[in-house]
């Protein structure tokens, strides 16, 4: 009797072990490689001045999702895009992310406007080993030693600032005026520009303006007293208009070089009455753009991306709002190269030049990351300067404009 | 000189906000914190009239005046009249302003829109300084409006009734003044004027949803410096804020600009708590 009881217990134990081994989890959950590759994106439709940026960022991610899924997904896993309706509110974004992790952990995370959300979610993403491709370029997401799964997408300050150097050299400018706003980004722009140009031997004077001010005459007059050969300026929205009007009012015909945020302001890329293209206000202005923003010379990958994004909705502003297209293309390329969608293998693949240079990205042709620096190491000639012209579908220089 | 003109034109914008605050304050002893947003709506209606509908200036002005008057009248009905005390009205009018900002964003978006000026956009040179025609118009309009309103309140029966209400609401009621009607009329007139202000301010500031927030605080400071209830005080306060802001930004940097404006406000309030032209009503009990 004792031996028979032992046999039954043994059979039950073996049976239960076999069932566990064969099941691999709950009965209705598919195996890991068949679950969707979940990409969560901070989105929404009511974020004040950032609304258009958010909408375009989400539309770009949706377009890339369709392209990637049509090509087989991320290492065979179809991409599922989960939009967090947080309107770029950091607290809401964090709460939505926590809820999503509890429900079904995302594999990757994207942002679409500013760096506020990036800063808020960086820690929790790191703890949960979720890949973060950050278009907000927060400082927290470029610390590979502690946060190996986070990468920047936008051009680093170094690139944005150094892109001016060929233009300054070509025109033999010696004295550079820098006019910048008072946001964290704008202050950093002013400080980095001053430091970089001084290091290259230029005489530099930087003047800050209050982005909430309604008139910039005082700041432009202060800069005029320095008598610069050229003025490098940063701004977004109405302040760009106030600055340009200020130069016209003072009758100061100094060459102006606007940074990528100036380019993103519709006021300088639309015809009157909505914009200033062709007016005396922009006669001395040149805009900094990524090469892909020039419709005439854009690559086939960029053209394909623009068509895919147009199908998802209007591209507001410039292609600089479409980094999330590139984010999903990079994830797919890395996953297919690594034959895995595990974060460790995927991030290792992202560091390979042959992977990030052939991912079919739209804004930049490649995102060269280093093991110890997760900002894309773009060359100074990845940006060029063009005269203001009408922007359509995120690009300038369309035939017939 | 260009810097002085810039300060005056900016000051005129603040003064117009202060005038709007003042009209409601005189009539109801309450602040309409949606005043700057009413002017913002005026700027957007001007954009609609000029750019979208391509209407002549006279029609645009009438359209802006009518539209903003209706909005202001609606505000009085839902955000002021049902609320018993003036303190709560500060919150309800602030809320109404926030709603207006949100609605404008939904209708016209978040990017700045150019509002044309009927007087052209060629820069004028005067006494060695340069200014746009719309800036000159702003300064002239602000001064003319204050003179006209002051004359009205001193010489017309309705104007005197308004002043009577501001001094002693109970006594005015006993003398047959309909406080409720006059308060409603004050809001409607403020809306009417805000429509014209929007048409004039739009060419300088653009029609942009953030305009209300940018103007509300400085307009209030202009009013506090000049003295609550004083039209001339609001005008001088506005010009003072504009001139100080521009000169400090020019010679000390924009970081000190707001700081200096509030320092002057503190100084004025320390010396004259009622503002430069405000009056204190003393009673012997």
TrEMBL record, chain A:
Signal keyword on record: yes
- Segment forming the signal sequence: 1-27
Q: Which UniProt key words apply to this protein?
A: Signal
> What Gene3D superfamilies does the record tag this protein with?
3.40.50.2300
Q: Where is the Leucine-binding protein domain?
A: 46-356
PROSITE patterns per UniProt: PROKAR_LIPOPROTEIN
Question: Is this entry keyworded Signal?
Answer: yes
Q: Which InterPro entries match?
A: BCAA_transport (IPR051010), Leu-bd (IPR028081), Peripla_BP_I (IPR028082)
Would you identify the family this protein belongs to, as annotated? Belongs to the leucine-binding protein family.
The name this protein goes by in its record: Branched-chain amino acid ABC transporter substrate-binding protein
What organism, scientifically named, is this protein from? Rhizocola hellebori
UniProtKB/TrEMBL annotation, chain B:
Keyword S-adenosyl-L-methionine attributed: no
Extract one GO molecular function annotation from the record: transmembrane transporter activity
Membrane topology annotation: Multi-pass membrane protein
Q: What is its main location?
A: membrane
- State a GO cellular component annotated for this protein: plasma membrane
Q: Does the keyword Lyase apply?
A: no
The record's family statement is: Belongs to the binding-protein-dependent transport system permease family. LivHM subfamily.
This chain's protein is named Branched-chain amino acid ABC transporter permease
Biological source species: Rhizocola hellebori
């Amino acid at each position: 009797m004792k031996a028979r009881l032992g046999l039954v217990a043994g059979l039950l134990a073996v049976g239960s072990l076999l069932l566990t081994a064969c099941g691999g989890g709950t009965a209705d959950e598919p195996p890991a490689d068949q679950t969707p590759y979940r990409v969560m994106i901070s989105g929404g439709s009511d974020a004040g001045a950032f609304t258009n940026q958010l909408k375009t960022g989400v539309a770009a991610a949706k377009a890339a999702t369709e392209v990637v899924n049509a090509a087989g997904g991320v290492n065979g896993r179809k991409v599922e895009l989960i939009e967090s309706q947080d309107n770029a509110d950091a607290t809401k974004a964090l709460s939505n992310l926590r809820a999503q992790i509890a429900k079904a952990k995302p594999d990757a995370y994207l942002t679409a406007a500013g760096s506020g959300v990036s800063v808020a979610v960086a820690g929790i993403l790191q703890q949960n080993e979720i890949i973060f491709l950050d278009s907000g370029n927060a400082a927290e997401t470029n610390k590979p030693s502690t946060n190996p799964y986070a990468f920047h997408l936008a051009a680093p300050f170094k690139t944005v600032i150094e892109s001016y150097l060929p233009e300054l050299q070509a025109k033999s400018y010696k004295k550079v005026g820098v006019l910048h706003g008072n946001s964290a980004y704008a202050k950093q722009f002013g400080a980095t520009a001053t430091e970089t140009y001084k290091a290259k031997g230029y005489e530099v004077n930087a003047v800050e303006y209050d982005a909430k001010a309604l008139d910039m005459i005082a700041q432009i007059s202060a800069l005029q007293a320095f008598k610069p050969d050229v003025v490098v300026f940063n701004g977004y929205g109405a302040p760009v208009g106030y600055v340009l009007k200020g130069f016209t009012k003072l009758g100061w015909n100094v060459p102006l070089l606007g940074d990528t945020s100036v380019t993103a302001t519709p006021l300088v890329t639309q015809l009157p009455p909505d914009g200033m293209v062709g007016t005396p206000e922009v006669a001395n202005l040149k805009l900094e753009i990524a090469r892909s923003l020039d419709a005439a010379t854009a690559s086939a990958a960029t053209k394909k991306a623009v068509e895919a994004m147009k199908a998802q909705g209007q591209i507001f502003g410039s292609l600089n709002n479409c980094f999330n297209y590139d984010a999903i293309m990079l994830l797919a390329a890395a996953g297919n190269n690594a034959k895995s969608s595990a974060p460790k293998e995927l991030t290792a693949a992202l560091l390979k030049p042959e992977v990030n240079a052939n991912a079919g990205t739209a804004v930049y042709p490649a995102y060269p990351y280093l093991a110890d620096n997760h900002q894309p190491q773009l060359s100074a000639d990845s940006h060029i300067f063009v005269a203001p012209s009408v922007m359509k579908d995120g690009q300038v220089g369309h035939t017939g404009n | 000189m260009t810097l002085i003109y810039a300060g005056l034109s900016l000051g005129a914008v603040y003064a117009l906000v202060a005038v709007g605050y003042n009209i409601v304050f005189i009539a109801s002893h309450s602040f309409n914190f949606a005043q700057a947003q009413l002017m913002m709506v005026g700027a957007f209606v001007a954009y609609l009239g000029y750019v979208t509908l391509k209407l002549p200036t006279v029609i645009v002005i009438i359209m802006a005046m009518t539209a903003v008057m209706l909005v202001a009248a609606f505000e009085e009905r839902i955000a002021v009249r049902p609320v018993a005390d003036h303190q709560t009205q500060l919150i309800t009018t602030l809320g109404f302003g926030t709603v207006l900002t949100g609605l404008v964003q939904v209708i016209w978006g978040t990017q700045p829109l150019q509002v044309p000026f009927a007087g052209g956009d060629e820069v004028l040179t005067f006494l060695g300084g340069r200014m746009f025609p719309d800036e000159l118009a702003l300064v002239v309009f602000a001064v003319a409006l204050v003179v006209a309103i002051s004359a009205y309140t001193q010489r017309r029966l309705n104007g005197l009734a308004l002043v009577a209400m501001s001094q002693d609401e109970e006594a005015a009621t006993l003398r047959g003044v309909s406080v409720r009607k006059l308060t409603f009329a004050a809001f409607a007139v403020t809306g009417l004027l805000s429509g014209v202000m929007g048409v004039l301010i739009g060419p300088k500031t653009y029609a942009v949803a953030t305009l209300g927030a940018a103007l509300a605080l400085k307009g209030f400071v202009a009013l506090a410096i000049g003295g609550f209830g004083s039209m001339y005080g609001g005008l001088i306060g506005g010009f003072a804020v504009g001139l100080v802001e521009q000169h400090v930004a020019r010679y000390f940097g924009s970081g000190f600009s707001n700081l200096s404006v509030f320092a002057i406000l503190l100084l004025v309030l320390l010396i004259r708590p009622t503002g430069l032209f405000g009056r204190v009503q003393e009673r012997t009990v």
